[in-house]
Amino acid sequence: MATMRYELWIGLRYTRAKKRESGGNRFISFISLTSMLGIALGVAALIVVLSVMNGFQKELRTRILGVAAHIQVTGPAGGELADWDKLSQAAAQHPRIQAVAPYVQAQGMLSFDQLVRGVMVRGVLPEAEEKVADFEQHMKVGHLSLLRPGEFGIILGTELARALQVTRGDKVTLIAPQGMVTPAALLPRLKQFKVVGIFEVDMYEFDATLALVQLNDAQKLYRMDDRVSGIRLKIDDLFAAPRVSREILRLLGDDGSLGVSDWTHNHANFFRAVAIEKNMMFLILLLIVAVAAFNIVSTLVMAVTDKQADIAILRTLGASPLGIMQIFIVQGALIGCIGLALGVAGGVALALNVDVVVPAIEHVFGMQFLAKDVYYITELPSDLQWRDVVVIAGVSFGLTLLATLYPSWRASRVNPAEALRYE
Q1: How many other CB atoms are found less than 10 A from the CB of residue 217?
Q2: What is this structure's pTM?
Q3: Which of 82, 122, 140, 262 pairs as cysteine with 241 (C-beta 3.0–4.6 A)?
Q4: Is the pLDDT score of 3 beyond 60?
Q5: How many domains does the chain have?
Q6: Where does 83-125 show beta strands of DSSP type E?
């Protein structure tokens, strides 16, 4: 304990400079201060950037799953399901399934006043669809319940409605690719639908191409009788979707007649891109911490050169080479720990208040980082995960300790006789 006390005391003493100390000591302390600030800046930047990346990932996942289901069950090779009602009841027996909804999905073209747009038509049962998706909370005009069988109502995405220049109450013509064979020619199937609602999920893929109709109306238009394209399942934990989908496949019969896919498979590219970007940002910003941490090397090398006489005296008083190493390891570790503590505190505080800080900066400079006419996400989302904070702190502290090894080893190799020859 006594040995550790003197090593801690000397290491702390070397970290700071008092007024009576030489200019060289004050310069070393200045380098120590810049190393602390560099580590603090790098750690804070890492925490904030990873929190924002987590926020984007969470926001993207929320918006996608507001329209897409956790798990989908389809026929072989994406074909139709004839006994979907029995399959729905069987799937609902799984303890993690919260809701089941059938759907019809097909391609089509919408026409209005000489404007034509290709669309993905989804036939739904409003009361069941609301349990597996969040369409209702994304409705800008109308309600999902306005889709009633036989009334041929349709709900469009905002971008699709804007492209067709339609509003609620307008009648659009839906053209199905399945044609009608007549003695004269093969004629396309046409049906007028009344726009009863408009939704906006802030995902261009859905807002510009998706149209919702009632399930029975879709079955009539596409001549599917009582068949559907598949059933959509919602589970209690969306991250368990891959495992639950495999269990559902075994439950329904793994004989190749069914296809089961989950959201991680259907939208893998989105989340893989965000994950890769997050990892690359971590590595790039970690270089800031690495540069600041290795500034400690120059600080300690200068300290060892300046304190050679002190080291020699300590050695003659009985200090071991390991004790000399520990003195300078303590000095470097103190620099790293102080910078790390400041960085973690500042990074966590900023990550938790991004929604306040960013609007304040935008107000001061009179600009908007995420313009509404360019980006669909107009606010920087932040999702602070303590696991990331622990990893960042651990890696940064490891780099700090690594930076202390060479200067400390060099200090332990100082020859007392050589150091005191000209003193």
Answers
A1: 23
A2: 0.69
A3: 262
A4: no
A5: 2
A6: 97-112, 115-124
